[in-house]
Structures are given as C-alpha cells and as structure tokens.
Design brief:
Blueprint (H helix, E strand, L loop, with lengths): L1 H20 L2 E3 L6 E3 L8 E3 L5 E6 L6 E7 L10 H5 L1 H23 L6 H17 L1 H15 L6 H25 L16 H33 L2
Antiparallel strand pairs: 1-2, 3-4, 4-5
Helix pairs in contact: 3-4, 3-7, 4-6, 5-6, 6-7
The protein binds zinc ion.
Amino acid sequence: MIKDLMDIAGRAVRPFKRRAYGRTFVCPVCHLELAFADVDGNGLAVCPVCGAVISLEAPYGHAVPVVVDMEINRAQPKLRLHPMASHLPVGLFPVACLGAGVLLVASLLAPAAWPTALIERATLLVLALAVGLSPLTIAAGVSDWRRRYGGRPYRIIRLKLAFSACFVVLGGLAVALHASGAVFSPATGLIAAASPLELLAAVAYFATLAVNLVVVGTLGHVGGNLVFGR
Ligand SMILES: [Zn+2]
C-alpha cells in the first residue's frame, strides 16, 4: 500500500525531477542519484554523501559510473550544522499549517468551546519562527556545502537553494498576510472574510501555506537523501 503510494508520487514528480536534474545516474557505493551535469570536464564527480570519486562514461548512452577513488577524512553527515538546523523550519512549519487548518475547521463549524483566539496567536508565532529562522538554516547549508563539498555545483544543491528561496518568499508572504489581521479576526481568531478583499487574503494565505508545505517537504526529503543516502 505504502509502496504503491510512493510509486504514484514518484511518477507524478518525475517530469519535475527531470527538469531539475536532467539525465541522472546512481552512485555505485551509496546509491545517491547524481546528475550528468554534476560531472566535471574530466568526466569525474565526487559523491556528496559517501565521497566516492566517480568516473562516468556513457557508452551507447548507457551510464557506467566507475569508482576510481574515495575521499577520506570526511566529516560524518550527522555532525554537520545544516541537518540539525533544518529541524527549525522543517519541524515548525507543518505545526503552523496544522494550527491554520484547525482555525479553518473552527471557522466552518464554529464550535464555541475551542480557544481559537489563542490558537491563532500561537499559529502566527510558530509560523513566524519557522520562516524567520529559516535564513539561519539556509546559511548553515551554504556553509556546509562550501566546506564539506568544496562548493561543487551539484544539481541537488541548486535545487535546494531554489526551493529555499521559494520557502522564504512564500513564508514571508504567509506571515505578512496572517499578521495583517486580514485573514483571521484578532478578537475571535476565526477567519473574518467580511469583505471580498479579506476572502481573497484568506484564500491566498491557505494556498501559500499549502504550496510551501510541499516546498519544505521536498527540501526535507532531498536533504535527507544527502545525509542518509538512499
Ligand atoms: Zn555515494
């Protein structure tokens, strides 16, 4: 069942992955997927996870990665700063989405007993922390990339940088919409939607959260591959 769902998700993201990575091959040691574009002018690539120095040839268009050396004295992935710092946005953002979801349900059902004003304040706080602290996480990632991977231009890093920028921009928009008071009534914590403009703000807010949840999920998933391999 879970494998079937993973296969369906894998098929759905394949066109996007192809656009981001181009043609790929798999590290013979740790099975991390690398892009042909990661190979330098000498036909060599260094796997960012296991440190295998790979010589890539493609006779008849078929990728044949051969391990010619191993980079030793590599810092263990779990000792790097970025994987630890990533728990701030990756951990907090879904909690903020959960809070916003509870407020959406409360606005539709209008149960009197729910402390919606408190949930609204807490959601804004968690959302602001997730987005506000994310530049530190990104800076830690760039630092790790420069120091541990020699700043090599991997497609997987490029993808992470692009998605990180997306997370900050969309997250900043969500925080601004929430803090403006146009989405939720400051008194009750429920969705106000008293005017077409406020309804538009609420739709934009939830759409932004939904898209950013996919963005941060992708960042976490791809980052997990960089730490644990596949
Ligand atoms: Zn590897």
